[in-house]
From TrEMBL, chain A:
PROSITE patterns: ABC_TRANSPORTER_1 (PS00211), ABC_TRANSPORTER_2 (PS50893). This is NitT/TauT family transport system ATP-binding protein. PANTHER family: ALIPHATIC SULFONATES IMPORT ATP-BINDING PROTEIN SSUB, TAURINE IMPORT ATP-BINDING PROTEIN-RELATED. Residues 33-260 form the ABC transporter domain. The lineage of its organism: Bacteria, Pseudomonadati, Pseudomonadota, Alphaproteobacteria, Rhodobacterales.
UniProtKB/TrEMBL annotation, chain B:
CDD domains: TM_PBP2 (cd06261). GO terms for cellular component: plasma membrane. InterPro entries: MetI-like, MetI-like_sf. The lineage of its organism: Bacteria, Pseudomonadati, Pseudomonadota, Alphaproteobacteria, Rhodobacterales. It comes from Sulfitobacter brevis. This is NitT/TauT family transport system permease protein. PANTHER family: ABC TRANSPORTER PERMEASE PROTEIN HI_0355-RELATED, ALKANE SULFONATE ABC TRANSPORTER-RELATED, MEMBRANE SUBUNIT. It is found in: Cell membrane. The chain crosses the membrane at residues 86-114, 126-146, 217-241, 253-276. The keyword Transmembrane helix applies. Keywords: Cell membrane, Membrane, Transmembrane, Transmembrane helix, Transport. It is a multi-pass membrane protein. Residues 84-277 form the ABC transmembrane type-1 domain.
Length: 284, 287
């Protein structure tokens, strides 16, 4: 793990202009942020959404970003996805700039709302990115079947979104993000709008899915139990300016039944996250 | 459908009764005048009978209009200049051509407004200004100018229809094409979709409900445009020409039958769009 401000070597490479410099970092760090700054200019003056953020996400890790609203966790995710442009510092995804990574379809992005098109069936929705990427009809069908099975929605291909529950819709949206086989999965509070029971179930499924696909996951949440249950690494953030206050490597084993949330180890990590959140809040 | 049958029939009956009563009230003075001149004495019964059967009543009774419509549609050869079917067809062809042109223009302008910042800032005020000009004032100009450059017949009328029908399509389609939210557009960006792909796969399908609403208004406006366009052509053919000729010669029955046929035509056209809308949206899983 390379968290800290000492990033002299990495800082020398800029927005993918020297891809060779990024290549050896990519062998372990899939996503790497150095001295990242982002200031939004609004009518009420500048808002410092991210300040001096440094982070490495390694291949196969499940990293959660947690913090109160306004701490920049979603902004950080959107920077990785090339949906926001940083005003300072650098980010690399797979060793290249976020823009190049987006163009090479390096990541799947799951939004807070499922965002399925009401005029397309579940199968049609999952086919959508594949159509855009120009994948052959036969392979589209094969991939749709495969990802639907991954999220346990086999048999729902011909249904329209309104015929599915909120949890099932969100699973379909995850299937859609998985359909084009990107190695990175960026998830922005995907279960935020769902109730506790559905959420537990989806968390369990997501862990299984992660174990099967070995993807690198960046996951934004504001739920402490969710962050601790899912992650191999928890990034605690705090607002005004948005920054990282703590990075916790989870000591929990890879195999995690839901009951693990009752164990002392789990509670200890949760406690540390809570402390981190409180500390971040105190020095505002 | 079944539940609406009784209320619709009730309202219709009420309107017909009201119409008959109004016919008596409006046509009575003429009946009295005539009776005074010929020295007749009118009983209530003969008065009512007279008001419902005058040749040029102020307000013709429903059965007079119905008889006129029957005689000029079913009992006339449709190629005859006295056939309302012939006149309705003349108006309908201009309406449909104008509607197609107007819809095309409206959709193109909407796409321009949504995708081009300069058009976004500049076109809409002109579109709105165009509709503040009374169509009755501009219609003769269009006919005269187009006639001067050698364009006559169907096209000038269709242009007036287009002028009226493109407006609701522009307004509706701009709203429809902008209906996808920021998240859906971001999503397209994460897939590195081209502008054309975003348009065909997201913006256009999302705008369908808006389009159909606009088309219904546009179709009705288009029919009005065609009728107005027929007024300054010297009353040659079309429902507008029938209206004009009727008012020249005080043929109120002819005016009313042309009006009713125009209304029925509009209802049918809007109804057809409604059916297409239902079928399309059902197929798209959006109804």
């Amino acid at each position: 793990m390379a968290f800290g401000n000492s990033a002299d070597v990495m800082a020398s490479k800029t927005d993918g202009a020297t891809p060779i410099g990024g290549r050896d970092a990519a062998t372990e760090a899939v996503i790497s942020a150095r001295n990242l700054d982002l200031t939004f200019q609004t009518n009420d003056g500048p808002i410092h959404a991210l300040k001096d953020v440094n982070l490495d996400i390694n291949k196969g890790e499940f990293v959660s970003f947690i913090g109160p609203s306004g701490c920049g966790k979603t902004t950080f995710l959107r920077v990785m996805a090339d949906l926001e442009q940083p005003t300072g510092g650098t980010v690399t995804v797979n060793g290249v700039s976020p823009q190049e990574a987006r163009r090479s379809r390096a990541y799947g992005y799951v939004f807070q709302a499922a965002g399925l098109y009401p005029w397309r069936t579940i199968g049609g929705n999952i086919r959508l990115p594949l159509e855009i990427m120009g994948i052959s009809k036969a392979e589209q069908a094969e991939r749709v079947a495969r990802v639907l099975e991954l999220v346990e929605l086999a048999g729902f291909e011909k249904k329209f979104p309104w015929q599915l529950s909120g949890g099932m819709q969100q699973r379909a949206s995850i299937a859609r993000a998985l359909s084009f086989d990107a190695d990175i999965l960026l998830m922005d509070e995907p279960f935020g709008a769902l109730d506790e029971i559905v959420r537990d179930h989806l968390n369990e499924q997501l862990l299984k899915l992660w174990a099967r696909t070995r993807k690198t996951v960046a996951f934004v949440t504001h739920s402490i139990p969710e962050a601790v249950y899912l992650s191999t690494k928890i990034v605690v953030m705090s607002p005004r300016p948005g920054r990282i206050t703590d990075v916790i490597d989870s000591p929990l084993p890879h195999d995690r039944p839901l009951e693990i949330r009752e164990t002392p180890e789990f509670l200890e990590v949760a406690h540390r996250v809570r402390e981190g959140l409180r500390a971040g809040h105190a020095d505002v | 459908m079944r539940q609406s049958f009784v209320p619709v029939l009730t309202v219709l009956t009420f309107l017909v009764v009201l119409w008959y009563a109004a016919a008596v009230w409006l046509n009575a003075p003429w009946a009295h005048d005539r009776a005074t001149r010929s020295g007749e004495v009118l009983t209530t019964q003969t008065l009512i009978a007279d008001t419902w059967s005058q040749d040029k009543p102020k307000l013709p009774a429903p059965h007079q209009v119905a008889t006129e419509i029957w005689q000029t549609t079913v009992e006339k050869n449709i190629t005859s200049k006295r056939s309302l079917v012939y006149h309705a067809w003349v108006t309908l062809s201009a309406t449909l051509l104008g509607f197609v042109l107007g819809t095309g223009l409206g959709v193109l302008l909407a796409i321009g407004i949504v995708y081009n910042r300069v058009m976004d800032m500049s076109v809409m005020p002109w579109v709105i200004a165009s509709q503040t000009i009374p169509i009755l004032a501009i219609a003769p100009m269009i006919i005269v100018v187009l006639n001067a450059v050698g364009v006559s017949g169907l096209l000038p009328k269709a242009m007036i229809s287009m002028y009226l029908s493109f407006f609701p399509v522009v307004v509706g389609m701009v709203k429809g094409l902008r209906s996808p939210d920021a998240m859906q557009l971001d999503q397209m960006r994460t897939w590195h979709a081209s502008a054309a792909q975003s348009f065909w796969k997201l913006r256009l399908p999302a705008s369908m409900p808006y389009l159909f609403t606009s088309l219904k208004i546009g179709m009705a406006a288009s029919l009005v445009g065609a009728i107005v366009g027929e007024l300054p052509t010297g009353a040659v053919a079309g429902l507008g020409a029938r209206l004009l000729a009727g008012s020249y010669y005080g043929q109120t029955i002819q005016i009313w039958s042309a009006l009713l046929v125009a209304a029925a035509l509009a209802a049918a056209l809007v109804g057809i769009i409604g059916i297409v809308q239902r079928v399309t949206l059902k197929r798209m899983g959006m109804s």
